Amino acid sequence: MTDTRERPRADLRRAPERYLSTPAAGIETRHAFSFSGHYDPKNTHFGALLACNEETLAPGAGYEEHLHRDTELLTWVVSGALAHRDGDGHAGVVRPGMLQHLSAGRGVRHTERNVGGADTPVRFVQLWLQPDEFAADPAYGLRRVDPDPGGLTLLASGLARDAGTAALRLRRSDAALHLVTAGPWQPLPDLPQAPYRYAHLTVGSVGYRTVPGPQGGGRSLEPGDSVRITGPAFADPVAGPDGTQLLLLEMHSGLVLG
What we know:
single chain; 8-stranded mixed β-sheet; mainly beta; Jelly Rolls; globular; 258 residues; 7-stranded antiparallel β-sheet
């Protein structure tokens, strides 16, 4: 697996820095990593995360049927509604406050479209995670999320510690996805620790220090910004004037290679 012996770092990536693609009419995608025709050898993944795409589909727009294999796809809708249908007979509509998990396994074909009859775009974030179980049967899950009043809500996990919870079950035994929420000017809850953590801001704003203590520089996040966190970085995070909603991916190892 990837060597995790890195100095603590909170690597901030601004939303406008993402690679922009328009793969079809009415579709706008902003990519956090190398993707399709865009290749940057220094930006192919982070930990076990292969992709984090911010998608906007106009009314009537969507992705025609396409194939995924051996990838865990996690979809969080920010606004609007996304219709999913796959070749294994699963169908669902993902709305704000819901999480969709597609475990592609040995291979599954699916479509993703702005829900029929919509007159506004659908905006969503989709994360692609490498599994540690390969060539399995495809699986699908969709759940409505009731945010924990403490501000840290487990959305999906493959960790043994989370077995038996309401979290959707990942085929990655050392990763978990959390929703982090806080009211205006409130500190974020204590966040889970891991060698790799990926934070993606969906709503509001967050201020933080790059590392704990007075040596940590002050930074801020706006919607669409992300931070790639190694070790005990990303210190003292506090929500801005409108509160915050943050996706946090916890990963305890990197890519499985070979």
